[in-house]
Amino acid sequence: MSEPANFDEMSGPDGTIRPAYKGYHDWLSEQDGSWMRRKSFEAESLFRRTGITFNVYGQEDAEERLIPFDIVPRIIGGGEWRRLSRGIEQRVHALNAFMHDLYHRQEIIRSGRLPERLFRSNTAWLSQMVGFTPPGGIYNHIVGIDLVRTGTDEFMVLEDNARTPSGVSYMLENRETMMAMFPELFSRVKVQPVSNYPRRLATSLAACAPACAGEHPTVAVLTPGIYNSAYFEHAFLADQMGAELVEGSDLRVVDGRVQMRTTRGFKPIDVLYRRVDDDFLDPLTFNPDSVLGVPGIMDVYRAGKITIANAPGTGVADDKAIYSFMPEIVEFYTGEKPLLPNVETHRCADPDSLKYVLDNLEELVVKEVHGSGGYGMLIGPTSSKKEIRAFRAKLEAKPENYIAQPTLALSTCPIFTRKGLAPRHVDLRPFVLMSPKGIDITPGGLTRVAMKKGSLVVNSSQGGGTKDSWVLDD
């Protein structure tokens, strides 16, 4: 059976415009092409003035780069979004229950559903979290679920991001840019808002404050500093939330609380939205050479005197070998079949799977279990024989470090080029907030797009761009 053609987000197989895009397509057909090209250049200039950039590490020309932005939105109908939201909510509930179980009774391992080796040798699993329950029982305060469509209209989960999901500032700036450039469009097409995300984030984090917090908990964003690739987002979110933006040097443990230095002395922090990896969070507990974290913060945390979002140790859920067991994880903790399927995944730690992967490297996508950002992966169909040989050696040396997936025919969405509309591959990262009050899913999320013709890599670090994501208010 042949692989079905790419799913076109805007048009059906016969060229008819899908219902979700009708209002936008009608508007677009009325616009002059040269005017749209000017608007595209205007958007780029706006991003430059705003400073919407990211850093690329490990390259000779490592520097701040502009995030490519496309002015054609990715649109999802309201009914479809409601169905998708149910699957996202189910998955996030299961992830949080999994985190609690993994650091307590480990019932899923006792049941034989999950091999113990997957976390015993996993550096993201932290023994310091064993037996400890974070305030409110929430581990995954902010989650990004990466979704893709292939040859059908079914969404599948490509990755879970439960450690420190990034990109929400681009989602917000994309919408603000589109509304500034095309205000009349939003009067014709009713789109659900996303601009209230910072307020919802602040409310959700405050709801997770420890018992010692007052009526108005103090929330702060911990950043590694201006040289971090996502510093723009750290500063943006702190500003939009009305929270403090702090670095490790601004904080210290005073009287059993994590406190920040102010002009009036030290002030306790109740909730710390950290954008610092676990290893650098506390030099007394983890990496002793870290200057990015706060000495003693883990002792305060385990004493229940501060909330850290996301909880240390949640990186286990980002592991791609764990991902391959998510159908079992969802069913174990919810008693339901997953509403959102996984992409077919081969675990290279399994000898039979490894043989299959080695025999079919030219056709598969192979990823590091702990990899992110599009680094450390092989895309077989676009790799040279030399690259495949080199990757084969890595795979044979440490098979447990890798999983493999089929090369997906990701859905396409048009981008605006000098020659008009052209299809490019996309994914979608909805952002989910979790607190004791429930789960809050922002309508839409971040659409990442492979700006290069034929490319399947949407990561900004690999040349990808972003689009505004619309969920219709119907």
Would you give an account of this structure?
Pfam families: CP_ATPgrasp_2. Residues 73-450 form the Circularly permuted ATP-grasp type domain. By secondary structure, the chain is α+β, with helices and mostly antiparallel strands. It has a domain at 344-407: 2-Layer Sandwich (Dna Ligase, domain 1). It is built from 14 helices and 22 strands. The protein has a 5-stranded mixed beta sheet with strand order 3-22-21-18-17. Helix 3 crosses helix 12. It starts with 21 loop residues before the first helix and ends with a strand.
CATH class of the domain at 344-407: Alpha Beta
Distance between the termini: 37 Å
Number of strands: 22
CATH architecture of the domain at 344-407: 2-Layer Sandwich
Spans of at least 5 consecutive residues whose pLDDT stays below 50 are: 56-62
Name the beta content range: 15-25%
So how many helices?
A: 14
Rounded to an integer in angstroms, the radius of gyration calculated over CA atoms is: 22 Å
Q: Order the strands across the largest sheet as they lie in space.
A: 3-22-21-18-17
Can you give the mean pLDDT?
A: 91
Helical coverage, percent range: 25-40%
- Determine the CATH topology of the domain at 344-407: Dna Ligase, domain 1
Q: What form results from the Cα inertia axes?
A: globular
Assembly type: single chain
**Major sheet:** 5 strands, mixed
Give the structural class: alpha+beta
Domain Circularly permuted ATP-grasp type: 73-450
Organism: Altericroceibacterium endophyticum
InterPro entries: ATP-dep_Glu-Cys_Ligase-2, CP_ATPgrasp_2, UCP005522
Pfam family, one: CP_ATPgrasp_2
